[in-house]
Specification:
single chain, mainly alpha, globular
């Protein structure tokens, strides 16, 4: 009975830790997206009207890009977990990982057209500059830790 109780406590502790880790990751991701969006709004000088039109589209684009990457990582993870992956498994995973950039580019091109109806030419340019700047700042902060 004591052993069963100990196992139950251990399983409960692991479950709580997992939920806490996922919650922390989720909060971190939410904070990152929020910081990025605030930087974009500020750097592009978006008006209230532009914000209302642009930000939902931008968030939708981010979700699509995230999903492409998530799917490729999931496929790669499946191959890594297999005891004896075949060449076909490796090829499918490698292809999915390699094609993520192409798919990201296709998604960005699709949204660029939509963004161009909301943003000025200068703001379109500043968007890419701001995304790059945000990424560089995050990498720099990570290195300082």
């Amino acid at each position: 009975m004591k052993r069963l109780f100990s196992i139950l406590i251990a399983v409960l502790a692991v479950s709580v830790m997992t939920v806490a880790q996922n919650s922390n990751r989720s909060k971190f991701a939410t904070d990152m997206y929020q910081a990025k969006h605030e930087m974009i709004i500020e750097q592009l000088g978006l008006t209230q009207t532009q914000q209302k039109q642009f930000m939902p589209l931008y968030e939708q684009m981010e979700r699509e890009i995230y999903q492409v990457n998530r799917n490729a990582r999931a496929l790669a993870s499946e191959v890594e977990k297999k005891k004896n992956p075949t060449d076909r498994d490796y090829e499918a995973a490698a292809s999915a990982l390699s094609n993520t950039r192409v798919q990201e580019g296709d998604i960005e091109a699709k949204y660029f057209e939509k963004f161009s109806k909301i943003l000025s030419k200068k703001q379109l340019f500043l968007l890419k500059q701001t995304e790059r700047k945000f990424t560089q700042e995050m990498i720099s902060k990570k290195r300082k830790k």
